Amino acid sequence: MAGHPVNMMHGGPGGPGATDFDRAPFLLIWEITQACGLACRHCRAEAVDTRSPLELTTDEGRKLIDDTVEMGTRIIVFSGGDPFQRADLEDLIRHAKSRKMRTGTIPAATERITPERILAMKEAGLDQFALSLDGYTAKQHDTFRGIQGAFGATLAGAKRVREAGMALQINTVFGTWNYESFDQLCALVESLGIAFWEVFFLVPTGRGTDLECLKPEKYELLFAKIHAVQKRAPFIVKITEAPHYRMYVAEAEKKNRAAEAGPVGQRVKHLLARETGPGGSMGQAPKGVNSGKGFVFVSHVGEIFPSGFLPIRAGNVRTDALADVYRNSEVFRALRDPRRLKGRCGRCNYNDLCGGSRSRAYALTGDYLAEDEACSYVPPDRPGVHAT
User: Which domains does the chain have, with CATH numbers?
Assistant: First the structure.
């Protein structure tokens, strides 16, 4: 799945009920196709370079957009596969903009990213254009993305997006293969004039089962670097599938209270819940988003999931009401209830702010409520809490 971090961007006005995650997600990602010319090593889908005849049609897509708005969600991301393989992408963006939604898309770095198509995205009203960059050299990036030339296509596409005056987002996946290159990769990302950097941590599902997750101590090392970037960078830095970063920031800012200006709460909000990025670009959600908690994913054939990386089907937009599935299905309700979490996540005093990666817990244990093994935090004993 080209450039598909589970939660691409969480920002801008969310509309009615935007902060009541029991009623509506802050963000919906629609995988409009699985067709893709890349073979990314972490992809949740076995994407092939041909479109499925079972994809949601343009009319079904317009209805999905309408249902999303009526549910109270005002941000939609057209993902893939490679969304540029659909000729109706601009029509779908225009429809979403007519419903006053904010829109993003994540095309694969192929020959389809032409100046003409970028201009068409801008004219359709696209708010944010995302590209994936997972290495600071062509060899590192192209090996991960499964095709030679992807690195060059990404840099060329980024330049064209900026020249078109559009908000540029970069998505980066970190794991054992590239975490030691964080400083060099970060420098390259910062040089691109971005509005938003989505830092995604591996969930071992789909093709990603062949890759190795970082150990908890490596997460901590990267968290310290990311925290420093967030403090200095003008752009938004969003962490995906490592929600314990929120806990890290809260703890770090409490320790820094004597050395840093301003109340701790304001500093944490600036780092984790900035409303807008540069030039009014996408910001972050007003509170922590997780699988099924402020977030919903719709597949190319209409299946409703808590996340693209948490493959538990809760319904299908062709047969089920999207709002009803999000609000009332057992899996979504359980994911929004921190009292249902198990192990250290169940005992943790940060389990509402964080909650652990539900996708990683499911991928490693088969239980989406299990503790997230990527976190090393040992919570204090909490009277009356006996999570197992």
Answer: 27-280 (3.20.20.70)
